[in-house]
């Protein structure tokens, strides 16, 4: 993994291991300089924007930040979750985006720390979130766990082709 802006190698491990111990990270990844940027939970960002293709671990990482560091967590997919489970409706995508943005905005206005995870193929998709606070970081998930929402392979391929790089992002692959 690489934190592009500071060129410090980072490595995170599965949920049974802390993502907050620099010594532990160094032990797992000897190439990591001892003076490198601290791990994600120690960065103290008000807003963490997580992006990646379907099945890359975005939601898992966001839930972990919420559980271990007290971040409020929002993503468009939450809009489609109900008592009957996940029911995606393409006609409601704009409403899901508005709901997600409002949750992030309200959380930050209330003084909280927020994590938002969505595909965000284009940098422009993240800009409205960047406008909410200067204290943000971007994490790109790169693992391939397979999509839990059965997103067709051709749709994922189209997302990958449309992917726009962002120079100031951490890369997270959870050891995969």
TrEMBL record:
Record key words, sorted: Plasmid
Superkingdom of the organism of origin: Bacteria
Entry-linked InterPro entries: P-loop_NTPase
Protein name according to UniProt: Shikimate kinase
Organism: Acidovorax carolinensis
Lineage summary: Bacteria, Pseudomonadati, Pseudomonadota, Betaproteobacteria, Burkholderiales
């Amino acid at each position: 993994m690489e934190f592009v802006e500071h060129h410090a190698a980072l490595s995170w491990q599965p949920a049974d291991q802390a993502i907050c111990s620099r010594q532990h990270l160094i032990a797992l990844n000897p190439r990591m300089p001892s003076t490198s940027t601290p791990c994600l939970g120690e960065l103290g960002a008000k807003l963490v924007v997580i992006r990646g293709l379907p099945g890359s671990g975005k939601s898992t990482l966001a839930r972990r930040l919420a559980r271990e560091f007290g971040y409020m967590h929002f993503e468009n997919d939450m809009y489609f979750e109900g008592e009957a489970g996940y029911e995606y409706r393409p006609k409601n995508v704009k409403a899901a985006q508005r709901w997600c943005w409002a949750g992030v905005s309200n959380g930050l206005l209330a003084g909280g720390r927020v994590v938002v995870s969505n595909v965000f193929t284009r940098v422009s998709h993240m800009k409205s979130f960047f406008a909410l606070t200067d204290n943000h970081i971007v994490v790109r998930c790169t693992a391939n766990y397979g999509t839990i929402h059965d997103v067709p392979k051709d749709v994922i391929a189209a997302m990958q082709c449309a992917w726009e790089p962002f120079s100031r992002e951490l890369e997270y692959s959870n050891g995969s």
